[in-house]
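Thread: Newbie trying to understand structure tokens

Hi all, I'm a second-year student working on a class project, and my supervisor (Dr. K.) asked me to get a predicted structure for one chain before our next meeting. I've only ever worked with sequences, so writing a 3D structure as a token string is new to me. If someone could post the tokens and maybe explain what I'm looking at, I'd be very grateful. Here's the chain:
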Amino acid sequence: MNIVHTTKLEKSKITHFFTNHWGSPQMVISSGIFQCDELDGFAALNENKDIVGLITFVISGDECEIISLDSIEENKGIGTRLIQQAERTAREQDCRWVKLVTTNDSLHALQFYQKRGYRLVQIYPNTVEEARRKKPEIPLFAENGIPIRDEILLEKSLD
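---
Reply by user tm_fold:
Sure, no problem. This is what the structure looks like when written as tokens:
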């Protein structure tokens, strides 16, 4: 597996990845509407140079906000390597915090981030309803049957 900056890839390849895995490259969360295929980030490539993982983020002041993190091959360290690379980049740019938002149904994500030092700091009840008005393809229920309603803010100190 090779980790590369997203600027090293054709934008169409990144757009295709987001369309396949999220329905579109647009991410609607409480902190804004993001065009993920235009954000800073890193991709994990397999030996065929196919994207098997992708992280995007925005740096503002002393904070880095992870907008998306995807790994299509679970339990192989792809997500861990991508998040470590994003955190390295954040430190290089003098960030003190990394934060991200996930939804209440993402039990795997909540477990993943907490194991890597992220803390749950705030719950935004019913915010997914507002996001769904802007991006109607957001499902009402997750594959695990949990209604998708709330956003959860997680943070990690880089100090």
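A couple of things are worth pointing out once you decode it. The two ends are 29 Å apart (CA to CA). The mean pLDDT is 95. Feel free to ask follow-ups in this thread.
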